[in-house]
Design a protein that fits this description.
single chain, alpha/beta, 13 helices, 8 strands, transmembrane helix, cell wall biogenesis/degradation
Length: 402
């Protein structure tokens, strides 16, 4: 399969909320995630907030901007309640419809990324409910997720803009679980609800992916055409997938067509793996770990780096302990430790080395297009502007793509 090289960006925090990217949306509540937000607001207030946010956060102009940066694709995280059938949450299929119309006007493609699951597939705040990871243990909810994928395939499978559908974002597997330290880092609001929380086994995940693939392609179910990709996330262990979907000859089995592997690689994760917090350390890690890894796995599947960015602790002036913010109780630097020129050099360097590493595969999606956090006037957020691609381009940290 020839996958056109993807140069893309995520539209995170549009249809799936992340508090750190737009704290004002959570004003007047103690909620840290989307699950608890509607429990603390009057229903009319909640609906007004959500609808206003969605209308203002991403619109046609944003697609024009993304095109002007030389990018050709967007990855759009969507929630499991996208079709509006899981009260009290508000569906957002109309917004995705608009995104397809904008994408087709401006010549961009869309990767639909099912970013959350009921009772969460990872326990992260971006999985919908913090500190709870039980979805894979609930057969009815597993079936519900499959039905959502089918409905998305039926609705968008023949749209010119569709690049593909990603089965589920960042399932928290037995490899990732000890590193992510979910139950400590993301404290559950309701311990009873969180009871039984735990990682997803790779055998289970592989079986689920194969089931999802067939349900997406099945003429009576999803009917996703063969020219649209089925994308699966590596569960934070890219080595696990060398024998996946293989026939007896070691090649991709003939019933599997246009399957793409998504891996998320952040410098903040590299830091937790022992990467030195220096510009040289980042460069060495990217060149000697990420680049060969992407090249090797591209022998098995087309590989995209569906999430990455320039963010790192050197740019923040403090050790972020794997990307933890003031919302997690971290202090954050009180003043810049680097000059503007030093910062530009740091970020241009990590941009160059990461873009070179991703070129060993089939493309990338930067996380994220924008965030609303004011990193200039709000104490503790120095360095977090690196998550916002628009701010990176404006400060000459990230090259406009050719």
């Amino acid at each position: 399969m020839d996958l056109d090289y993807i140069k893309g960006v995520n539209l995170g925090n549009w249809l799936v909320l992340e508090k750190w990217m737009n704290p004002a949306l959570f004003d007047g509540t103690t909620a840290d995630d989307e699950y608890y937000l509607p429990t603390q607001l009057d229903p009319a207030v909640y609906e007004a907030r959500i609808r206003t946010h969605r209308a203002e956060y991403i619109n046609e102009r944003d697609f024009a901007t993304i095109k002007s940066w030389g990018l050709n694709s967007v990855r759009i995280p969507v929630p499991y309640f996208i079709f509006g059938d899981r009260a009290p949450f508000i569906g957002c299929i109309d917004e995705l419809d608009k995104a397809f119309n904008w994408a087709e006007k401006y010549g961009l493609t869309i990767l639909i990324d099912l970013h959350t699951a009921p009772m969460s597939q990872n326990g992260f705040d971006n999985g919908g409910i913090s500190g709870v990871c039980k979805w894979a243990q609930l057969p009815d909810e597993v079936e519900f997720v499959l039905s959502v994928l089918e409905r998305l395939a039926r609705r968008y499978g023949h749209r010119r803009a569709l690049m593909g559908i990603e089965i589920i974002n960042e399932p928290n597997t037995t490899t990732c679980w000890p590193m992510a330290n979910v139950t400590e880092r993301y404290k559950a609001v309701d311990p009873e609800l969180a009871d039984g929380t735990g990682p997803i086994a790779f055998d289970w995940l592989k079986n689920f992916y194969i089931t999802a693939y067939h349900r997406l392609r099945d003429a009576d179910k999803g009917a996703l055409p063969a020219d649209k990709a089925v994308v699966f996330h590596d569960g934070f262990d890219i080595e696990q997938w060398k024998d996946f979907m293989r026939g007896p000859d070691g090649k991709l089995a003939p019933e599997f067509k246009n399957v793409v592997l998504d891996t998320h690689q952040y410098l903040m994760t590299a830091e937790t793996m022992g990467c030195p917090q220096t510009a040289e350390g980042y460069d060495d890690f990217v060149r000697n770990t990420y680049a060969p890894m992407i090249a090797e796995m591209s022998e098995y599947f087309p590989v995209i780096v569906g999430e990455w960015c320039l963010f790192n602790s050197v740019g923040c002036g403090v050790d972020t302990h794997g990307g933890q913010s003031v919302l997690n109780g971290e202090e954050g630097a009180q003043a810049e430790t680097l000059t503007a020129e030093q910062k530009r050099s740091l970020y241009q360097g990590v941009a160059e080395s990461q873009l070179a590493a991703w070129s060993k595969g089939s493309g990338f999606y930067y996380w994220n297009y924008k965030l609303l956090t004011d990193t200039v006037n709000t104490p503790g957020w120095i360095g977090w502007d690196a998550w916002d691609l628009g701010r990176c381009i404006a400060q000459d940290w990230f090259p406009v793509q050719k």
